[in-house]
Write a structure and sequence with these properties.
The chain is an all-alpha fold and 162 residues long. It has seven helices and no strands. The longest helix is centred in the middle third of the chain and has 29 residues. The chain starts with a helix and ends with a helix.
Length: 162
């Protein structure tokens, strides 16, 4: 059982780390904070079944699951909006719209096929504009490891867009 004091310690030690972990996957600070709060709420609700020494891996697993659920909800929301024509029409032809949707679908599929580390490093580099050295420092890996994962992610994307 996780006591109130132990939960407070786990929260204080891990909240920012979990929020950053999620942020690097979704690029949205507000969503990352919301997902992190949900993770800790679920930990609090399950505190009677948990031990303080095995919480950290569970936090990261729950954070990953929370991000995936958030991502799926966003996709459903966007698909719903598109089905009712709520998307902003920029004067694109139907063919251009179709190509755009196919490109987004291919990009999304490629992101799903990347390993967790590849996706994280790629998004930090390309979406957040972080330098390899910053990414390496944040993830506590070498710059060469970051380069390797970005290269692998780019190779996968190239194959998807050929």
């Amino acid at each position: 059982m996780l006591s109130k004091e132990e939960f407070k310690d786990v929260f204080e030690l891990n909240f920012d780390k979990i929020r950053d972990f999620i942020f690097y996957r979704c690029g949205d600070r507000e969503a990352a904070s919301d997902i992190t709060q949900e993770v800790f709420l679920r930990i609090w609700e399950k505190r009677e079944d948990l031990k303080g020494d095995c919480i950290r891996p569970l936090l990261y697993k729950m954070a990953t699951d929370g991000f995936i659920n958030h991502y799926r909800k966003e996709l459903r929301r966007m698909n719903y909006k598109q089905s009712f024509g709520e998307e902003d029409d920029c004067g694109l032809s139907p063919e251009e719209e179709m190509i755009g949707r196919e490109s987004v679908a291919a990009y999304t599929e490629a992101l799903k096929q990347m390993s967790e580390m590849q996706r994280t490093v790629y998004l930090m580099s390309r979406e957040n504009g972080m330098k390899y050295r910053e990414i390496a420092r944040n993830l506590r890996v070498s710059v060469k490891t970051v380069e390797k994962h970005v290269s692998a992610a780019l190779r996968l994307l190239r194959t998807k867009f050929r």
